[in-house]
Amino acid sequence: MTDFLLNGARQGKTEAFEYRMCGETFVLSFKRPALVVSWAILNGGFRPQIAHIINHHIEANPSPPGMPPAKTLRQVVSRLGLKGTVVGMLTRADVSHFALARACDRDLLAYAITTAGCGNLACVGEPGNYIERETQAICVGTINMIVVTNYRFVHEAMLEAIEVVTEAKVKAMYEFGLRSKANGESATGTGTDCVGVAVGSDRRYHLCGKHTKRGELIGRVSLESIRTAQVLSAGGILSSVLGLAGKPWTHSSPQDQATSGLEMIEAVRKDRVSVIDDRLIVHPRPRVVEGLEQISGLINRFATEPARAE
Q1: pTM above 0.85, yes or no
Q2: Would residue 155 be called left, alpha or beta, if left means φ above 0 and alpha means ψ between -120 and 50 degrees?
Q3: Cβ proximity of 89 and 57 under 8 Å
Q4: In 3D, which of 271, 282, 270, 272 has the Cα closest to residue 245?
Q5: At what angle do helices 155-175 and 213-234 cross, to 10 degrees?
Q6: Per residue of the chain (310 residues), what is the pLDDT tens digit?
């Protein structure tokens, strides 16, 4: 079974962790220290006894300029008063627009939390201009994914889990018709994505491929999480990203679309995007019925009206 949770709640808890928004930072705190593998800026690699994972929003022109990203994250950790070892990620995406998914099979549990931005879309193998220590680093539109399981993997299986998460991300990119900003080819992610996989202490597994139940659960939650994170970030259904609530989609300027990467989405290019007030569907109140009616009307309209030619 797969459960999907929108980002309406700024805090919550699951069987394995608690999460909350602290200003511009998403904080995930484990109930018991976890083994984590990632290529995160702060405490990346294989790290035992991790107490927290944070995903911090950073502006395009951070202040002070030129501060090393790891130092920025250490300052965030200190300011939040987090105890224990912390894995830290950075992004320009709005981290309050996270998408959390949960899947279970008997006593096996898997979770995925994703924030997604489209401003840095790239295709694997395209020319790269960044040279470490020679050019300024890029931190725009990153897709950050955190996957948590209640069972323990050997290191090899944790790496296999990262493969499954990455394949789910690429599948979602193709589903959304996202394309590289550099060459227009099908995007496989952004140039600054990060994945973190955290495992629990129950049992110990050696395999996590697509044919295994563990791999299936991780793949399902990753897909559900990133699909909805893309919707949340794109501003098509939930409008608060661009502040468009109550306005026609055409009020979104080409500059806004280019900055957020929206022009790379097929639905945007074909004018298949409408905006509704996100307050109608995010919060569990009676107005959610009105929101669902609006969504139903939009789906019916898109199903009957021809798309604009590119």
Answers
A1: no
A2: alpha
A3: no
A4: 282
A5: 40
A6: 555 554 556 789 999 999 999 999 999 999 999 999 999 999 999 999 999 999 999 876 565 666 788 999 999 999 999 999 999 999 988 898 899 999 999 889 999 999 998 778 889 998 887 777 666 665 566 899 999 999 999 999 999 999 999 999 999 998 888 888 888 889 899 888 999 999 998 778 899 999 999 999 999 999 999 988 887 775 433 333 333 333 333 434 444 444 445 555 555 656 666 666 655 655 555 566 676 677 666 665 655 565 555 5
Cβ-based neighbours of 60, under 8 Å, separated by 6 or more: 92, 140
Residues pairing with 101 in the sheet: 4, 112
Tokens 């798309």, located at residue: 307
The enclosing H or E element of 201 equals: none
Neighbours of 44 (CB within 10 A): 17
Instruction: For residues 111 and 220, give the distance between their C-alpha atoms in angstroms, rounded to a whole number.
Output: 9
Taken as a whole, the chain contains a residue count of: 310
Distance CA 310, CA 297 (A): 24
Domains and CATH numbers, the chain: 2-234 (3.60.70), 249-304 (no CATH)
Report the C-alpha gap between 18 and 210 in whole angstroms: 28
Nearest residue to 118 via CA among 273, 292, 277 = 273
Q: What angle do CA 298, 301, 307 make, to 5 degrees?
A: 110
| Cα–Cα distance measured from residue 248 to residue 274, given in angstroms and rounded to the nearest whole number | 7
Tell me the C-alpha distance between 69 and 88, whole Å.
10
